Amino acid sequence: MIPGRFDYHRPASVEDAVALLARLGEEANILAGGHSLIPLMKTRLASPEHLVDLSGIGNLKGISVQGDEVVIGAMTTQFELISSEELGRHVPIIAETSRLIADPQIRYKGTFGGNVANGDPGNDLPALMMCLGATYAVTGPDGSREIAARDFYQGAYFTALEHGEILTAVRIPIPSPDHGYAYEKLKRKVGDYATAAAAVVITMADGKCTSASIGLTNVSETPLWASDAAAMLVGTSLDKASVDAAVAAAEAITEPASDMRGPAEYRTKMAGVMMRRALERARSRAKG
Amino acid sequence: MNDQTKIDQDRAERTEKLQGMGCKRKRVEDVRFTQGKGSYVDDLKLPGMLFGDFVRSPHAHARIKSIDTSRAKALPGVVAVLTAADLKPLGLHYMPTLAGDVQAVLAEEKVLFQNQEVAFVIAEDRYIASDATELVDVEYEALPCIVDPFRSMDPDAPILREDIKDKMEGAHGPRKHPNHIFEWQIGDKEATDAVFANADVTIKEMLVDHRTHPSPLETCQSVASFDKVKGELTLWGTFQAPHVIRTVVSLISGLPEHKIHVIAPDIGGGFGNKVGAYAGYVCSVVGSIVLGVPVKWVEDRMENLSTTSFARDYHMTTELAATKDGKIQAMRVHVLADHGAFDACADPSKWPAGFMNICTGSYDIPTAHLAVDGVYTNKASGGVAYRCSFRVTEAVFAIERAVELLAQKLGMDAAELRIKNFIKPEQFPYQSALGWEYDSGDYHTAMKKAMDTIGYKELREEQGKKREAFKRGETRELMGIGISFFTEIVGAGPSKNCDILGIAMFDSAEIRIHPTGSVIARMGTKSQGQGHETTYAQIIATEIGIPADDIMIEEGNTDTAPYGLGTYGSRSTPVAGAATAVAARKIKAKAQMIAAHMLEVHEGDLEWDVDRFRVKGLPEKFKTMKEIAWAAYNAPPPNMEPGLEAVNYYEPPNMTYPFGAYFCVMDIDVDTGVAKTRRFYALDDCGTRINPMIIEGQVHGGLTEAFACAMGQEIRYDEHGNVMGASFMDFFLPTAVETPHWETDHTVTPSPHHPIGAKGVGESPHVGGVPCFSNAVNDAYAFLGAGHIQMPHDAWRLWQVGQKLGLHN
Ligand SMILES: Cc1cc2nc3c(=O)[nH]c(=O)nc-3n(C[C@H](O)[C@H](O)[C@H](O)COP(=O)(O)OP(=O)(O)OC[C@H]3O[C@@H](n4cnc5c(N)ncnc54)[C@H](O)[C@@H]3O)c2cc1C
After folding, report:
1. Beta bridge mates, B683
2. Is the pLDDT of residue B809 over 80?
């Protein structure tokens, strides 16, 4: 539980950070809240020679509404996601999900950007970002670019970020005010990653589902966007048969590992149960 | 106000001031603990101190082909790297275990479990030490490993302990196989077999009390400091039994015992994990002796969970025979005990299976037989008593699950079956079929109080309705009612039964009254959070009438404390608590002589009154303890030696037998397997209650650990012997969020042989709690024909039960 040797850097701007990362090369790693990276370093699963801490960069923090999107700075803490009144009004599922991340101590330090950039399928926010159709703004040595959350995750700890690129902000389209939502997470205890979890956002009109989006956490190498399952719900009244079919379709795309949370078969079924429960709650919240 | 009321009031005020036995005195140690001012081993910083860290085996079973330490030694800041080759000339590459086996300190030719200690790096700081462990190059040749204890004695099983492979006589008799450790039997086999052959009803079930770990918050650690000039060794460590450690260190190091100063400072929980001796202690000692500077060793969490002593791993084939109307006639148990790679069980030496023979429980079972086979596997060694007296959690689990299974088979209510078979109050002292003499008990009263309080009848009615609703598909929740009526056996122990490596299991107290009437008292036990500084003072306060706040309790420094066997197995109150009372009474007897001299009366004319001796019939003529203390030093009676102090080494005449009635109500979500404890009621009878608040705290803690063990905590290995989940991410340590609300209650049946009638309580809630939770889970599924469901009852396993029963379609 003792990390290897490393040097610590604390740049004051994104440009400086990018330059530092370029100069230090592959052995440098970005440090945000440290609550995913430092445990890996303590068990020596990661031994970066340099840590480039982003906490000295002022403009990476904050939540704002820009047009029909909410923009969240990468260094915004998970606690701030819960306490932002504005975010709660526009995209309440973010606070609901964040409350189920780890525990209060970790959420005070852990950042939004670190959570989504980390690439651990156990993180809760990535599946939610896929569900919400978010876009990630990144800056690197070759300038800035945007990556859709749905295209970002490529494998465990393996994302579309190139080395030296920094995630600066995330843009999230504001769902219709009538939308229903829920995040359901099964975990063994407080502070635990999900055995399985599901994020659901739907809209309803005249008792029929008019749109649906579903994200699944920790049931594959990457977070999952269950687009087929969601499509099967659109146009239905979310009757049992339709939900059964959609749940089966969502379960079919899972590929969880067997671990101390349970065997793969269990975790697949729990993804289904969580999705079913999230759908029920989302429906009860949706207007129309 | 009349005179009598005034006298009573005065007496009540003086009694209250004492803060003696029976009062909810606040824990004095918490003043420092809650301010972060405790002083633990890792807080110790000595000039020139070096730090050690282990190179550990990645394999469960492998031959060591070579160890090359040159790269590590070349790292700046590394001072030394020890391997078995360095320890062997000193005879220290193996150390004796408490169970009569030997245990590798650093692996010599083979490693026998994953994370076993292979080399010890000593460096200027912990970071360098840790870096250097990665630079020790060890070449291994992997060997086939044994994970399943049922394979250990297969004819073609790989031989694990080559060091003792030809030694077919173990510490406890002949070994049947090179991987066999011992067979231990008790009871009348023939008579038991005969009862089973003719019984109306029998049940038989394999009950597994799975491998887990005591996981104290503070891990195991030590600092050794050898003074080359004086030839003296000071060893600070996380020791539940510091004196025993001193003796063991003397025996294995050859240093004379008076030149070894063992000190256990504040300890952050032990639960059995800190009874034994570990490679880290030995290596820090050797490092300090060789280098002449202090060496610190601090285990990290993963090392703690995966290497220092585990608990349980008992596979118990349990049988009961009964008449048709539910009178239990016989019990037969065979245990396969997985001890891992070395037999490092922490039991009194003559008891290789601890007190497993308490397994007839609270019931009058006339005939019984128990056989235990211990075997080696490629897992960490141990088998410590995790918050229980030796193997008592296992024993109580066996009997309390078995009576439930019997009730089910008989179609009888599980509470009714228990009551029918209870040992009756008039049968105490009761001789059990497996050799114990239960000192006292009133099980019927406790059970009735518990059932009335919890509303047992109504709960069963509610459960009946719920079951119907479940069958009709109206709910996806199952309701379980768990019962456990346990009898503990604590306070080891009488020397006729108990010793550790030949050291009799007495304990001790030394009380010294200062001239101004305040007190320092020292015991041979060692608190790890139990609150000894608070409770021993209460015993003394009541016995000699000096306020508890004027009494300082000190433990853990073996130079100053009288020799004792330490704290585990709930023995502090039964043994050292008794010593405290006896020593206090010696002081009181001397004080009475002094008071008689001061008051110029005959001793027999005096009577004790809370905090003073007074002349019978002349209540205004008295001397307080404080006055007597001054006189004891400065004006003792002629021919009496001055001073006021006493020592007692207490040899208990018997164990004590606390008991209790526990009830649990559980609701289980069939679709996820998540179990929620709706209610948990714990009635404990620990005899005389010294501090009700501390008892309640102990019960809360013990129940929480019982909840953990039953509902998810485990040390698991995969088929290659890789230890799984050895961190707090996976190892289930419940937080306040998961922990159920506890309802506590009590009855009082004092121990007839203990000077103050107290029995010990620290472990009862764990012992009684584990089967209570498991019974609740089992009861929830019983009506669906689930059969016995093994622990731990975590969500995925319960979901699998539902899956097997076809509940998810
Ligand atoms: C006990 C425990 C329980 C937890 N439980 C949960 C849980 O239930 N759900 C959950 O979602 N999370 C959980 N976490 C993780 C927690 O939310 C982390 O805070 C989060 O995953 C990472 O955010 P961070 O700010 O701490 O990032 P860091 O740990 O500092 O970084 C994580 C990784 O992301 C990279 N990174 C960070 N920021 C950026 C950026 N702006 N641009 C590019 N790369 C970046 C880093 O280089 C690093 O590789 C838990 C953590 C702990 C210790």
Report:
1. B661, B745
2. no
CATH number of B506-650: 3.30.365.10
* B334-385 tens-digit pLDDT: 999 999 999 999 889 889 999 999 999 999 999 999 999 999 999 999 999 9
Mean pLDDT of B74-88: 98
Assess whether the C-beta atom of A140 lies below 6 angstroms from ligand 1.
no
> Does B737 contact A at CB distance below 8 Å?
yes
Q: ipTM, 2 decimals?
A: 0.96
**pLDDT band with cut points at 50, 70 and 90 for residue A1:** confident
Angstrom distance (rounded) from CA A66 to CA A61? 15
Tell me the CATH architecture of domain B310-492+655-804: 2-Layer Sandwich (3.30)
CATH classification (class only), B50-143+218-268+274-306: alpha beta
Work out whether the CA dihedral B748, B750, B751, B752 comes out positive or negative: negative
Query: Residue B656: phi, psi to the nearest 5?
Result: -110, 160
Quote the mean pLDDT of chain B. Answer: 97
Which chain A residues are closer than 8 Å to B732 by Cβ? 188-189
* A24-56: pLDDT as tens digits: 999 999 999 999 999 999 999 999 999 999 999
Residues 6+ apart with CB under 8 A from B637: B593, B594, B596, B597
> What is the phi-psi region of residue A71: left when phi exceeds 0, alpha when psi lies from -120 to 50, beta otherwise?
beta
* Residue B311 in this model has a pLDDT that exceeds 70: yes
Residues of A in contact with B712 (CB under 8 A): 188
Is the backbone peptide bond immediately before B366 cis, with ω within 30 degrees of 0? no
Average pLDDT over all residues of chain A: 97
The answer to whether the Cα torsion of A167, A168, A173, A174 is positive or negative is positive
Note the helical H segments in A136-252: 149-152, 227-233, 240-252
Tell which residue, B315, B209, B278, B219, has the closest CA to residue B714: B209
Closest by Cα among B536, B626, B545 to B577: B536
Residue B270 has pLDDT above 90, yes or no: yes
The pLDDT tens digits of the residues spanning A230-269 come to 999 999 999 999 999 999 999 999 999 999 999 999 999 9
- What average pLDDT does the segment B119-135 reach? 97
Fold of the CATH domain A181-283 = Enolase-like; domain 1 (3.30.390)
Active site residues of B: 240, 387-388, 763
For chain B, the distance separating the N- and C-terminal CA atoms, rounded to the nearest angstrom, is: 77
Question: How does residue B581 score in pLDDT terms, banded at 50, 70 and 90?
Answer: very high
- Distance, CA of B45 to chain centre: 30
Is 90 exceeded by the pLDDT of residue B2? no
Element spanning B664, H or E: strand B659-669
- CATH of the domain spanning A7-53: 3.30.43.10
Strands (E), B299-422: 310-311, 314-322, 328-338, 367-375, 382-384
| Gap between the terminal Cα atoms of chain A | 53
Counting residues of chain B whose pLDDT is more than 90, the rounded percentage is 96
Report which of B531, B505, B524 is spatially closest to residue B566, judged by C-alpha positions.
Answer: B524
User: Which residue ranges does chain B devote to CATH 3.30.365.10?
Assistant: 310-492+655-804, 506-650
The pair of three-digit structure tokens given for residue B53, joined into one six-digit string: 């860290």
Q: Do B795 and A195 touch (CB under 8 A)?
A: yes
Residue A288 pLDDT grade (very low, low, confident, very high; cuts 50, 70, 90): confident
Nearest CB to B799; choose among A193, A259, A266: A266
**E strands of chain A, at which residues?**
7-9, 28-31, 50-53, 63-66, 69-73, 135-140, 143-148, 153-155, 158-159, 166-173, 180-186, 196-205, 208-217, 224-225
Picking from B134, B794, B800, the nearest residue to A188 by CB comes out as B794
The sheet with strand A63-66 has its strands ordered as A63-66, A69-73, A166-173, A135-140, A143-148
